[in-house]
Amino acid sequence: MLKLVQPQPKEERVPEEVKSTEQPQPTTPVQTSTDAEAALLFQREGEEPELDPLMQAIQDEMGQSLSPSSGGIGVVQDEIALTPFEQNEVFRAVNLTKAYGEGAAYNEVIKGVSFIVREGEYVIIYGPSGSGKSTLLHLLAGLEVPTRGEIRIRNQAFSALSEDDIALYHREGVGLVFQSFNLLDSLTVWENVAFPLMLAGAPLEWRQHEALKALDQFGLVDFANHYPNQLSGGQQQRVSLGRALVHDPELLLIDEPTGNLDSRSADLVVQEISRLHKQEGRTIILVTHSPVFLPYATRVFYIRDGTLLTSNEQNRIDPV
Length: 320
Ligand SMILES: Nc1ncnc2c1ncn2[C@@H]1O[C@H](COP(=O)(O)OP(=O)(O)O)[C@@H](O)[C@H]1O
Ligand SMILES: [Mg+2]
What we know:
This protein is of the alpha/beta class and about 325 residues long.
């Protein structure tokens, strides 16, 4: 069943004419929680929007300006909710919201985030520490339950999946990579890579075959019988990429993969992830505060205080 976002109350809706960026900007800005937010979301007449340095950096990096994507206003959320499903749509977030705490401690960490990811896209969600990147990725991975909003995978509502389906999604539908590698120290490198196959009950020979194939992609076959603590950080992260890919998932979700790496190891991981997109046509969502990934993305969202802004150029997909 479709469980798309509820229509916003009328007074919170943005006037019709704001929907197109070609139209004059509103002189009376829509209600937002703070002036700073309003300044970010809408360029008031005759004024440049305030950009924080990180946002300025991404704009410079991409050679294009940023515009509102979503965040408590309704327009873009409704557009995303109403956009018809097409065969190449892999993933959709609709008005995704996550709050922690209650009463005075209530803290909305993700504030109505909406976007669609299509086959072959490499989407980067870029923003400063504490902006909600990991929380958002955990929501996308189904590791945390949203307070409001909806995730759809291939047009299927995540909330409607059975426990078995969710387990299957984690095991086979999605490959996860984290900053801290999350390898099991008591298993060898190949056993770590093959771990998802073991959970799936695959026979030993198949597990070994597939693990070595995955390790070969990252030049790590010679380390198959080593233990993770015998490897450098960069090698461990590439092992964790191998583990994420061993099931040939249709979506890779990656959180700050170079956060624990020196710059040389980091560079190799950046290149490997780009190769997975360009050469293998993998669909990737990566969250990071590191600008080194940005040139490789097909689309960049900037995240600040749980709100997404996107580049103007939608769906810029490089030939794979
Ligand atoms: N389980 C939690 N309980 C309460 N607050 C949380 C929890 N997880 C994250 N937060 C808060 O959400 C905000 C965003 O955190 P996070 O998603 O880790 O940001 P980032 O990955 O961009 O650094 C932070 O202010 C953090 O304190
Ligand atoms: Mg984080």
